[in-house]
Amino acid sequence: xxxxxxxxxxxxxxxxxxxxxxxxxxxxxxxxxxxxxxxxxxxxxxxxxxx
Length: 51
Ligand SMILES: [Zn+2]
What we know:
This protein has one domain. 22% of the residues lie in helices and 37% in strands. It has 1 helix and 5 strands; from the N terminus they run E-E-E-E-E-H. A 3-stranded antiparallel beta sheet has the order 1-2-3, with no helix packed on it. The radius of gyration is 12 Å and the shape is elongated. Zinc ion binds at residues 9, 11-12, 14, 34-35, 37-38. Zinc ion binds next to strand 5 and helix 1.
């Protein structure tokens, strides 16, 4: 699998990779990049009961 470096996580600064076409994290519309861990944390912080 080829890993492509996307950029640093906006929260923790870890490098986020694209692995075989799948981003190991989240790229938000405002170009904020989050790693997997921070994506989960951000979701729990949001406490969104929708969906
Ligand atoms: Zn992070």
